[in-house]
Each structure stands twice: as C-alpha cells, then as structure tokens.
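Deliverable D4.2, example record:
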Amino acid sequence: MNSKISVKSSTLGFIAGIFALITTVAMLIAGRIGATSDVLTIWDLAGIRHGIAAILAIPIIIYSKPWRIKLGRHLVSSIFGGAPFVLLLFGGMIYAPVSHAGIFMNGTLPLAATIIAWFWLKEKPDSWQALGIIIILVGMSLVIWQAVPAIRSDYWIGHLLFIASGIWFSVWYVSIRAWKQTVVQTLCSLLVFNAVFYTPIWLIFLPSGISTAPIKDIILQVIVHGVFGAFLAVFGHAYAARTIGPMKQSAIMAGAPVLALVISVPLLGEVATSIDITGALIVTFGILLVVGMRLKYSSFHRVKNKFVYLLFYDRPK
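Output generated by the structure prediction step:
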C-alpha cells in the first residue's frame, strides 16, 4: 500500500514540476506580449501579478497565520522575489526576445544562487557545479557574441536586465532555504507585502495603461501572471520539491530555456538562430550540472576535475 502511495506521490510530483515549468514559460511569453505592446506597461504587469495573487492568497494566509517571522525577512523576500524582479525581467523583454530571457534569466539563477549560497550558507560548490557554471557562461557568451552585433545593437540591454533579474531572484531563492520558510510564509512575504507597498505606488504614481487597455489583454495577464505565475506555480514548486525532491524539480526547471525557445518561435514569430539553439542547449546542460545531475564516466571525471581545479582553486603544488 505504501509503495502505491509513493508511486502516486512521485507521479503527481512530476506533474506538479512540469506544471511549474509550463507556468514559468507562459509567464515569459505573456510578459513579452505585454512589454512590447502599447496597451499595458511593465508597471501594470507587476501590479496585476502581485495584486491578483495576493487576493487569491488572503484566505490561506488568514487561516495559516504565517506572519510570525522577523519583519526584515519579510522585506527581503518581498523585495527580491517580488515587483523589482518582475520589472527587471519584463524590462529586458522590451529589448530582447523570450528565447534570450529563458537562456539568460534561467541560466543566471542557478549560477548566482550557487555563489550566494557559498558565501551566505558556506555551501562550497563541488567540482561538478563549478564545471556547470563554466558551461552556463559559455552558452550565454555564445548568444551574446552572435546577437549583439549581428541582429540588434540594443539586445545587450535586455541581456543585462535578464542577468540582473536572475541575480536578484537568486537572493530570494537562497533566503527561503537559509531561513527555512514554509510555502505559506513565502506567499505572505511575496504577495501581501508587494500588494500593500507596490500596488498603491503603481496605481497613483507609475505609468499605466490599465484604464484604457482592452479587457482581453487584462484577462490574459490576470490569468497567466496573477492566477498561475504568482499563485498556483508556488504550490507546484513546493509539492514537486516535497515529493520528488528539489534536485529533480530543479532538473525539470532546467528545460525552461529550450521550451521558451521552442514555443516563442511559432507563437510570437521570433527568430531563433542555430547559435541561439546551441546556446540554449549548452545552458540547459550547465544548469543540470549545477543542480546536481552527475555524469558517470571516469575518464571524463578525471579530466574535468583537473580542469576545474586549475580554474577555481589553488594550482597543484
């Protein structure tokens, strides 16, 4: 009986992980549509995302009473996981395509999280993770090398914003682990604090097209960002991490760069060059190494150890 329950939980865990992956890519697609249209501003996208999700989370938060943590931790979670991250990500989409957002944001996140965890949690990356970091950097460098001079000179602005969003979000990611916050505590910090502080500023002071936007555009952003991206996806991540483990869930999320590229080409009419595809595959492979997937070939293991040792640590005496 227990084995049947375990198999069922694992199956549901994989489904939850794939759901989280799909909602992430859908967020990138909808964000690109919103950021490049004249209908809504990126300020609107952040406001809709956190406002709607906060409304949905209120009953859960009232029932669970998760606010019994330090105010400073709430603020760190809300700042680094909330509106500023969304604004950096969607701001980048004004200049660069979804496929590049998948490569640079999703590639930077595990890279930066590994480095931050090294200094904050004293979790020194092993040699495989170090190699994964190098591979991620190689993949991103390929895309930068061909995209900036050959296609549009302002792609680099989007790339920098995507990288900044990944670094910014990684602080939130590591803080949850450092402080062992529950899912509901994370929802409280991430949604309520952003709704209380950011939403009034957005409605009163920031540029907005919400009053004149067609209802279909607003509904799209409400469903993708508010309902799925900022609310349901949190539970998908949490359930998958609890049932199949954080490493397997992270491995599922490593598919974001490739999936974003595959979907954005037919849906948004974006152009993906052979180097874009190669870069996405290289970054995905690097992410898998950083999150804990291991290769088993002993000869490659020896070469890899020597290479990473020379680059990251003291030279052998």
